[in-house]
Design brief:
There is one protein chain. By secondary structure, this protein is an alpha+beta fold. It has one domain: Deoxyribonuclease I, Chain A (4-Layer Sandwich). Helices cover 25% and strands 25% of the residues. The protein contains eight helices and 14 strands. The strands form three sheets. A six-stranded mixed beta sheet has the order 3-4-2-1-14-13. Strand 7, helix 3 and strand 8 form a beta-alpha-beta unit. Helix 3 runs parallel beside helix 5. The chain starts with a strand and ends with a strand.
């Protein structure tokens, strides 16, 4: 079973590259973040045409939004309000083998890493704390994927020194993500298959005219699994070339293969 995750930054605008990815990578399940569309306007027919007939979507007009598209049956649609304001940032399902699959879009957190002057940063930390409490109570085999908007390791960014005070790589965010990981004894599948200090990036800013020239990337997108599920993982792939496709997202897809 191949499970992919991608912050697509508007699924309708980028449906052509989504279709290309599905044809080339052939994941069994695709989890999308930042779909930026209400459920009624989701481009469902494009996915059905490629064999992805099972859809669980949680949309929002112009902002946020998550979706799970699958070639295999999925059930038990859950939507946790970890943002505590009903933003569309999570959707979860159960796979046919009983494993839970949770798809999350963690808030970016604004520009200033200080909750006293930047409420968005506080919302991000509170979001991760709510996930941590959920994780501590988890009792079933689970895969957690999505845009976490945190690059935890020094090797997960192009320059630890330059970014240590920049939102997405600050010590307070990294500590919050570490607590989340410890609460569920999660295995970080990206680093399981590509241990540090190996370079591993999933996001490059649109501000760079040529993202390949300076390669100022960050690993903001993750796939984690409880240890029982991680034992079945056989490979983890980052599709870096997608960043050069026509009208790309600033994120690239990641995919883990499981021997289910």
């Amino acid at each position: 079973m191949k499970i992919a995750s991608w912050n697509i930054n508007s699924v309708r605008f980028r449906i052509a590259i989504v279709e290309r990815f599905l044809r080339e990578a052939e994941p069994d399940v695709l989890c999308l973040q930042e779909t930026k569309v209400v459920d009624a306007d989701f481009p469902a027919d494009a996915f059905r045409a490629l064999g992805y007939k099972h859809h669980v979507i949680h949309g929002q007009r112009m902002h946020h939004g998550v979706a799970i598209l699958s070639r295999i049956p999925i059930a038990e649609d859950d939507r946790f309000d970890w943002q505590a304001n009903r933003e569309a940032r999570h959707v979860g399902v159960r796979l046919p083998n009983g494993v839970r699959l949770e798809n999350v879009y963690v808030p970016a957190g604004g520009d200033v890493p200080d909750r006293s002057v930047n409420p968005k940063f506080g919302q991000k930390l509170d979001f991760v704390e709510r996930m941590t409490r959920w994780s501590a109570a988890l009792s079933c085999p689970t895969i957690l994927v999505g845009d976490f908007n945190i690059a935890p390791l020094p090797e997960d960014v192009w320059s630890h020194k330059a970014l240590v005070k920049v939102v997405s790589h600050t010590p307070v965010e990294v500590e919050a993500l570490d607590r989340l990981q410890a609460a569920g004894d999660w295995v970080d599948l990206g680093r399981h298959f590509h241990p540090a200090p190996a370079r591993l990036h999933t996001w490059w800013s649109y501000r760079s005219a040529d993202w390949t020239r300076n390669d100022r990337g960050r690993r903001l997108d993750h796939q984690w699994a409880t240890r029982d599920v991680a034992a079945a993982a056989t490979a983890h792939i980052v599709f870096e070339d997608c960043r050069s496709w026509l009208s790309p997202s600033d994120h690239v897809p990641i995919m883990t293969e499981f021997g289910f």
